[in-house]
Design goal:
Elements: H1 3-89
């Protein structure tokens, strides 16, 4: 039996084993990355919920301020209308 086919066969077997081990390790690393990303996603979702619940009162306050501005503008227009009628009577 010649040496070359035996060497090539043994190298091929070793290479296949090494690539199989690398593939399994890569799979395990990717599973770890998936778990880590899942935890990060949960943390980001929790932070988003907290920020939304924290900013909700300020949004309501902004709506109240806008309502007050509108009310003052209506009051100002009403007083101008009253003054205009008063000036016509004078």
């Amino acid at each position: 039996m010649e040496v070359l086919p035996v060497v090539l066969t043994s190298v091929l077997i070793v290479l296949a084993l090494v690539l199989s081990i690398v593939g399994v390790q890569l799979f395990l690393v990717l599973m770890g990355v998936k778990k880590t990303l899942s935890r990060m996603n949960q943390a980001i979702d929790l932070a988003e919920e907290k920020l939304v619940s924290f900013s909700a009162p300020f949004q309501g306050l902004g709506g109240a301020v806008a309502g007050m501005k509108t009310g003052f503008k209506v009051f100002e227009l009403f007083t101008q209308w009253l003054n205009r009628n008063k000036n016509k009577n004078d």
